[in-house]
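worker-03 picked up job from queue 'complexes'. Input manifest follows; two sequence lines, order preserved.
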Amino acid sequence: QQQVKQSPQSLIVQKGGISIINCAYENTAFDYFPWYQQFPGKGPALLIAIRPDVSEKKEGRFTISFNKSAKQFSLHIMDSQPGDSATYFCAATKGGGGSNYKLTFGKGTLLTVNP
Amino acid sequence: DTAVSQTPKYLVTQMGNDKSIKCEQNLGHDTMYWYKQDSKKFLKIMFSYNNKELIINETVPNRFSPKSPDKAHLNLHINSLELGDSAVYFCASSLYTEAFFGQGTRLTVV
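worker-03 finished. Artifact:
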């Protein structure tokens, strides 16, 4: 059972365009939703995260939109740059950290930004 | 300064062998993890340890045995390696919500 569904699997965007990646979750106990960015040969790195008490969070060109009733959240990358080309993972967890913190990941989106 | 470091970065071995991957974090975090990333890049948790105590074991075959000698180290020993064990194994650590990942160990079983 896949608890976090991510789409699309791959995405090609022109430089300066907007990249949008969507995720949906099933477990209503999830209370923390991070996005991770992974470059080839590297480990995932936290990009931005949101809790369900807010509907949007923005950090620079990256924005998370969160819809609690629909159990969906999305990542928007504004003014996409070739350096943003990477695999993006949405994730979810419950418990707010501590020793039982377990990230459930989506299957990833390979983003390619063409110059 | 490397926050979460794993060794080796690449590991090629034959079926049936036993191998270990080592992980160390210098972030002062209490919790450490092993995640497996398969050939389709799907990331799944295997184990988590908090202060040397096993907290999460996600139905991983008992050929996989994690060991945490102290809260800064978490090693993964794999017995009787199988072709299906080929993957990238990531160590991670966290204090609260943010997990920091190592660069991964690409294990290839031939």
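worker-03 released lock.
The mean pLDDT of chain B is 93.
Chain B touches chain A at residues 4, 30-31, 35, 40-45, 48, 50-51, 53, 55-56, 58, 90, 92, 94-104 (CB under 8 Å).
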